[in-house]
Every structure is written in structure tokens, then in C-alpha cells.
Recover the amino acids of this structure.
């Protein structure tokens, strides 16, 4: 484990995106988006994935110079073709379109096809906050999740993020995979050589498993709820809604046919649409009530929930976004710890482009 | 258990709503909305609640002749004051406004304050389907759910419904409480004198409980995910989003201050807003891509998921809405079974208004 300053990681990551042929503007956006994951403590989605993006570019599955286009629109909606660009670039573009629509129509909703992985959903949703808007972001991803009663993987971990502004209190920011546990949590236990709890994953026959490596053995992650008795059909429905809004509504791919992130995994033979899909929303607060009123009530909401009587063994009840915000402050100040395997990976990426890490 | 034809239940329920002073139009809407729960097999939300609505009216917490008003709007949004009307009447009104907005602006989003319980969320979301729109409905409710790490009840079971049209396949209809199990499921086990599974509820000290009556003993339902290790912070975030969109955005009440459904429970002393809140959305499919294309791909999506390899012991993978749709066909034909306690309750309601049940 080595700790790096944000500015150092930024410079290196930016240079890598420039090296694969991104414009200065796109490299800047991609770097900020990617590193927001490391800052917020979602290590699985940050620089740990940089080499993966490079490999997708090498495999010609990512276009470093996309012409991102609005292909259809109404006053409150748009459909965007990402031209196979980095999701890290396509997503902020699309979220900005949603925000611009909301300025005029009250809300803006954008479905995106022909994109790639977009980093953490929360980053895009949070773009709305400075405009006194509620932001939403979701994306589909390649299939790792088995629906309730299924042995087969049919859905990605399909995250949903919702960011809601407050007044004196920090914003409410929920950013969650629609599975019981995100894949990154399994990876952490893999590295420690520890078991995963029952209820996170199943083996290839659909039997509950404690093997942290089970996904590599044709196992599957479980939808939020874990099993039917504990509501996994709800997690399955949520993941499906994300898939449909992101993939089917946009003209992207969906379900088991979503393109895989690892470039060594062949593309599914059948492609019902183009690339990964995302879905974004922005709702202007004052399209419903005066923004100041709303934000004052959000302060009351947040303060009341923070004061809920905690269980024995817990200091306090958290508000969605609390841990990530605290992590961001800490890591901006103290630096970002990078585990050795990711460090090696980044060094190799550097060598590829004659960049020193 | 006695089985009644839909038409008989309809006539009785309609007459009760007329008896409390609803107009013919409102009584019709309220009856259809309420009985959609019985038809779809969500027995806890149908005629079983009729006496509860009557008691709210007796306690002057429900206005049988509401002047439902749009108090603010933009091209794609509206805020509605339900004038303390039956949610069963206010909600279809508001959903229609969302649909009308979507016809012009591409999407419509309506936040509602000063309402009451609205029956099942799925009914309202499904209103969008005939217009080739995606429908959404959610509502807050009085606090029965403890956030992650909380002993205190802070949220209602706050359901989310999403209805998505297909072509030859039946529509995708998800309708779910944001808890592991809906309160109605506990009530079923109470009647059978059976325990509930671990992971559904906790006692007043926050300890996991198997007592089906624990909610009556200051216990709490658990958010979807059950515990922190299995993602209960995600269920808590979802329930919170529903509360904020429904209550805070509309100027309604929220969190632990949402008015209780049982009329004998006193109103919370502090009221940050007016009544229960709901939130509705309608998105015109062809605001994103041609509706025929979308619906054909929804058929492919549904057919592929139905064909996912099932686990041992299960015939097939279900699509959200399958069980409720099958139940509706069966109950429309065979009748609706009413348990004895509900039957007694309905008879008493009938006596009150000199109506024969």
C-alpha cells in the first residue's frame, strides 16, 4: 500500500488519457470522473480500472475521440449516442444535457446508448446539486447478477445514484449497486483470502456460497435482498428497471448482452443495441416549491434522522453520502492509498506510454 | 374465508364512499383504486382497509369532497395540494396530470402534499401504460421502519412502483415496499400464529426478532437488505428518497411526522408539512425512441429473462408483475376471498351506513 497525493494521480491519469488520443477537454473530464471514485473511497471504480479502460481502447471497443450526439429530443428529454466514447466523458456530457433541459422544462431526462463504463454514478448525479436540482444517474453493465430463482447471470450490478441538495447540512447522496454487495467488496475479501458472508453470491448451481472467488467460477452476485424470503425479487426489479431505462430506452444493449468491461472477454454474439446504456435525470427544485423552503426542510429532515436513537454499539445513524464525503475530505488532505497490485498495474500502463508513475 | 365476486365488493365499497359524502365520480375512482389491490392479491391494501378510511373520515382527517389543486407547475412538473382528500382519489388525479404533462413536454412529474393513503402504488403507475408511457408512483407513510443502526422508527414502508409497456408480452410492473417484507406479510403470519423469518423486523432495542407481533411492541420493520452487511443502508436510502420526493418536495409531512393511518393514533405534535405525500412520473416512450421499437425490445427482454435457466426446485424465472397479473385474472373470474376478520369489519361498516354486505 502506497499513498499518493490526488494531484499526482491526477497528472498521471490525465497523461494516460491524452496518450490514448483524448482531447485536453475529454482527458480532463475523464480524469476528474475516474478519480472521484478514489476520493470517495470507492476504490474498485477509480484508478484501479485505468488499465481496463486502456485495454478496451486497445481492443478498439473505446473511441478516444467520440462525436457525442443528441439523436432525439423533446422539451424534457434527450436520447444520446455516445459514439463508443469513454463513459467517463459521455456521462458528464449527458448529465449536462439533463441539467440544461431542466432549466427550461423543469426536469430533464437523458437516456444514452453506445457508451462504456462511466465510473461512479454518484459523481454524475452530484453535478445537479450546484444548480439547486436533484440529480439522478444509473447505468447498466455486463451481467454478473442472477435474478431471483435464476442460476444464470442476467444483469449487471446496475447502480442507482440520487443526489439531493440541503441548506446548511451537506447534500443527501445515495449511490448504490442494486445487489446486496458490490463486486468491489468481494475483491477486498479475495485479497485478504477471507470468505464472503452468506447472502452475497451463489455458485453456478444457484446454491448460496461463501467463496469470495465464486464469480470467477461461473457464480453470480445476488440482487439486493439476497433471497426471495428477504426481498431479492425487489433488488432484481430495481436492477431490471436500471437496465431498461439505460439500455432498452436508449437503443443500447441490455440484459445478458451488455458488452463486458474486461477486454479479453469476447463480445456477446448477439447485440440487441449499441454499447452500454446510461440514464440521467435532473429535477429543478423550484419546479416544485421554492428552493430555499425545500433546502430548509432538507436540513430538518437530515438533522432529525441524524438524531434517531442509535442501536447499542453504534454512535449514530448515518445519512446517505456521509461516509463518502468524510472520505473525500480525508483523502484530498492525506492522499489516496493504492494497493500494490493496482500500483504494479499503473506502472505497466505508464511504461506503455513512456509515462513515469 | 368467504369468496365474493368483484362486482359485489365493488357495489358495497362504492356505496360506502357515497355514504361518507363522496361524489359519484370520486366514489367510482376510489372504489376502483382500492379494489385493484384485492384483485392483484395485495390483500392488506384493499377492502381490508375500507373501515380504516371510514374511521379517518370520522376523525375528520379525510375530506370526502376535496378541491384538489395544482399549486405550482412548469412544462414538465406540477405540485398538487390534495385538500386532505382520500389518496385513492387524489393519486389518480395527480397521475393524470403527470400523463398530460408528458404528452406535451415528453415527461411529467408530480409531487403531492396534503393527501392520505393511496392504495397500491402499482395501480397509479399502470395508468401510464395505455398511453405508451412508463409510469412511476411512490408514497410516504407513517413511520414503521428503522434506518440502519437506528432503534427508532423513522420511515414508512414507502413503496415504489414502475410500470413499463411491452408489445406482445404483458407489461413489466414492479410494485414494492422499500422494506425486506411488507407489513401485510407480518399480518398473514400473525393470523396463522407463526414466527416471521429473521431479517424482517427488530424489537424496540434494535435486536433481530421473529415475533410476528413485534411492530405492536415498539419494534420496527427493516429496510430492504435486512442488515448493514446485506445492504440495509440501500433499502434505507430508497425509503428516504421516496420520503423526500413525496413529502419534502411537495410541502407534505415526512419522516417520523407522517400522519398515521389508524385514526386512534394521535397526530404527531409537530407537522413540518401538510398530510401524506406522493410522487408520480410519466415518461412518453417516443420522447426517447419510437414506441414500437421500444416495445419490441421489451418483448425480447422479457422473453430472454423468462428463459433464464432456473434453479433446482423452481420452474422458471418470473418477470415483475407476473404473479399479480395472474392473480387478477383468477380473481376477476373466481372471485376474491375475504378472511373472516375482514368480513366482520366490512359488516360493521355496512351497519354504520345501513348498507347490507
Amino acid at each position: 500500500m502506497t499513498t499518493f497525493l490526488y494531484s499526482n494521480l491526477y497528472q498521471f491519469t490525465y497523461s494516460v488519457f491524452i496518450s490514448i488520443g483524448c482531447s485536453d477537454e475529454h482527458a480532463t473530464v475523464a480524469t476528474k470522473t475516474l478519480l472521484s471514485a478514489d476520493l470517495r473511497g470507492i476504490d474498485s471504480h477509480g484508478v484501479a480500472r485505468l488499465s481496463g479502460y486502456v485495454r478496451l481502447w486497445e481492443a478498439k471497443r473505446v473511441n478516444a475521440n467520440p462525436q457525442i450526439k443528441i439523436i432525439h429530443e423533446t422539451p424534457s428529454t434527450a436520447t444520446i449516442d455516445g459514439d463508443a466514447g469513454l463513459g467517463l466523458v459521455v456521462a458528464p456530457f449527458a448529465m449536462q444535457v439533463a441539467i440544461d433541459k431542466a432549466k427550461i422544462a423543469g426536469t430533464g431526462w437523458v437516456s444514452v446508448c453506445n457508451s462504456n463504463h462511466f465510473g461512479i454514478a454518484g459523481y454524475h448525479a452530484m453535478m445537479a446539486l450546484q444548480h439547486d436540482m436533484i440529480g439522478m444517474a444509473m447505468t447498466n453493465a455486463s451481467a454478473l447478477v442472477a435474478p431471483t430463482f435464476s442460476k444464470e447471470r442476467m444483469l449487471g450490478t446496475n447502480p442507482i445514484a440520487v443526489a439531493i441538495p440541503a441548506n446548511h447540512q451537506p447534500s443527501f447522496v445515495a449511490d448504490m449497486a442494486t445487489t446486496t454487495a458490490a463486486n468491489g467488496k468481494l475483491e477486498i475479501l479475495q485479497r485478504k483470502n477471507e470468505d464472503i458472508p452468506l447472502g452475497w453470491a451463489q455458485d453456478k448451481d444457484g446454491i448460496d456460497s461463501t467463496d469470495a472467488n465464486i464469480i470467477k467460477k461461473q457464480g453470480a452476485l445476488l440482487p439486493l435482498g439476497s433471497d426471495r424470503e428477504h426481498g431479492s425479487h425487489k433488488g432484481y426489479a430495481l436492477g431490471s428497471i436500471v437496465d431498461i431505462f439505460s439500455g432498452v430506452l436508449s437503443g443500447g444493449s441490455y440484459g445478458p448482452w451488455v458488452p463486458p468491461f474486461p477486454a479479453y472477454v469476447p463480445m456477446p454474439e448477439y447485440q440487441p443495441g449499441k454499447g452500454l446504456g446510461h440514464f440521467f435525470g435532473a429535477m429543478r427544485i423550484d419546479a416544485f416549491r421554492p428552493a430555499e423552503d425545500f433546502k430548509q426542510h432538507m436540513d430538518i429532515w437530515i438533522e432529525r434522522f441524524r438524531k434517531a436513537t442509535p442501536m447499542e454499539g453504534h454512535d449514530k445513524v448515518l445519512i446517505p453520502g456521509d461516509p463518502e464525503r468524510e472520505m473525500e475530505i480525508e483523502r484530498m488532505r492525506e492522499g489516496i492509498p493504492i494497493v500494490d497490485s493496482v500500483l504494479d498495474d499503473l506502472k505497466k500502463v505508464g511504461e506503455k506510454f513512456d509515462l513515469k508513475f
